[in-house]
Automatic annotation (TrEMBL):
PROSITE patterns, sorted: PPR, SMR
Species of the source: Deinandra increscens subsp. villosa
Name of the protein in its database record: Smr domain-containing protein
Keywords, in A-Z order: Repeat
SMART domains xrefs: SMR (SM00463)
Amino acid sequence: MIGRSRSFSRYVFNNLQLLRSHSASIPVRFDEFNPTNRPNPNPNFSARSYCYGKKSQGNNEWTEEIDYLDESGSVIYTGKGIRSVEPRVDDHIMVGGLKQPFSNASAVAKIVEIVKRWKWGPEMETQLDKLQFLPNMIHITQALKVTGDGDASLSLFKWAKRQSWYSPSDECYLALIDRLNHSRDFEGIQSVFDDLVLDSAKMTTVPDFSAFSRVVQYLAKAEKLEVSFCCFKKIQESGCKVDTKTYNSLITLFLDKGLPFKAFEIYENMEGSGSCLDLATYELMIPNLARSGRIDAALKLFQQMKEKNMKPGFMIFASLVDSLGKAGRLDASMKIYMEMQGFGLKPSAAMFVSMIESYVKAGKLDTALRIWDEMKKARLRPNYGLYTMVVEAHAKSGKLETAMSVFSDMEKAGFLPTPSTYSCLLEMHAGSGQVDAAMKLYNSMSNAGVRPGLTTYTALLTLLAKKKLVDIAAKILLEMKAMGYTVDVTASDVLMVFIKDASVDLALRWLRFMGSSGIRTNNFIIRQLFESCMKNGLYDSAKPLLENYVDSAAKVDLILYTSILAHLVRCQEEQNERHLMSILSATKHKAHEFMCGLFTGPEQRKQPVLVFVREFFQNIDYESEEGAARYFVNVLLNYLVLMGQINRARCVWKVSYENKLFPKAIVFDQHIAWSLDVRNLSVGAALIAVVHTLHRFRKRMLYYGVIPRRIKLVTGPTLKIVVAQMLSAVESPFEVSKVVLRAPGDSVSEWFKKPIVQQFLLNEIPSRSDILMHKLNILFPSSAPEIRSLNLPKPLVAGRVM
């Protein structure tokens, strides 16, 4: 090749020498030269008309120096000569007498050489302007593909756009965008996109530029969310088509940025544009639709995918199984799971965990255990959290044997159970009353160095208290205290268990243990224990409790005082009466002062009994103590009747009625009916109310001449016998029905005129027969001191055998 080039160069050189010698001897113009007049060393050489070079003003000599090179670049001749082409106008060079067009490779190489050397700026553009050939878009495109620098490539493109021969080329844009992306010049990509939009706007038809999609893909991959979405919108506005890959890149970007609803909007736009969903789109959309809660849409895509004979991947199956399970659609989840196995895909450990969690949370423990066994058969090891969930779920559902079996496997697998797992098992065993298993778990916790929680201690101590294991409970409580817990509340709860179980001796023993260990309890529990001691007749133990209660600044209310008084009403032994009187005195309640004053004479009281009673009832706060005052009146009237203090009892009833403690007891319905309702009263209160009210009725009928049609005594089924027997002793006209004693007004008026009736109503109850008091004890065996509510039962009664 080099030999042929050198022979051709010698050929050109010889002809040029001939021309030079001829012009020196004969001064003629080159265009007048006729080669036929001179011998031609080469007969194949033909002359042509050349353009002029530079001449001096006085002669016809060529002044431009020309270097002639061979193919290897060596200079073979330098001298005056001519140039046969115009730079940037002609698209060829002259080799001797032949036109030699510029090769694309040479043109691209020259452009790349200039770009690499000058990079950017006016210098580079000046050199490009001096190119000896006319570039075209093919040269620019090829140069952009091999130019390494992004800025230089962009500068070359900007220079080309200003040339007259420039025409928009999708391949050129793609090459430039690829180069800018390789250089991570995203601002340059945005600039190119703007140029691309302008070029497409100038076209009469909608361009099909792939460069549009390429820009969005690169920007989305670079996580330029706002810019990529803006470019996407501009592409749509321009009417250009967006390919599937571009849609996928935008969807991925929005999903990665935590904007699933925006991603779904892009997907809906993709469907509306008629773009074909490929496998990547399905694998992208189905899992994300499922995880975002749009499960039906995910299942619809899943069905479309299968109709197109596309094989779903594992991620699609995993997301559907997980999402359907968490949504509670367990049947659909199991169907997808079985379908996945039909495709030959094996479940992963995460899928097994998800399915077991779903069935456990739904309470379907049998199915969860079946999947658990499948997981083990697949040689997949359950994780720590799964063991914990299965154990606790079975424990809480009462399946303690299964829970303990899985718990044992958990320990063999090398997992240390969490405190919550220990606590759950222990509390469930404690709740089912299994002391041995609960204590075994507690010792296992201690040996493992796991600190039991407060609820665990409480459950265990409650179990020990119910089983009456006081010593073990005391030991556990001290260990709890040593762990740094505050044990006052827990110890009080244990004490309350003993009180509710009526284990008063154990309760007193536990209270002594608390005192010796410096553990305090609250006044409410002290009061409960005091009332339990009173109920069981342990008056010696009750009084110190009451004194402790009073000394701790707790206030003995009227209900508590009345309950003690109720015990005194039913007391039958003199020794116990002394204890109860001392307990009443220890309450330091104002009601006790009233009781003491009530039984003293008028000389010591210095006022009549009715005035004394009225002063006491005036000091009661009826807004907060109305129920308690009603309870006190019932018990007090029982006590006064049994003690034979009828006049004092009538004063108490009169004042309590005046203060509207029993507002609906007496009803005057003009001339039709008068009634007395004693259903809510105790026996003593009912008897006093009947006597006192009949006395009022007698006064109205005999003194004022007002006689109703009938008179009713509403007693209820329990008090009617007591009241009827009392009135039968004085030959009353009242007839006994189911719950009412009734008589005509005229008959009662005649009855009131009898002297025995007058004596009966003015003085005291004439009958205290053993039969009457025996019926009192049978009908009302309890004075109800344990009633804590202010709304007392009906009737609330106390009585004793006299």
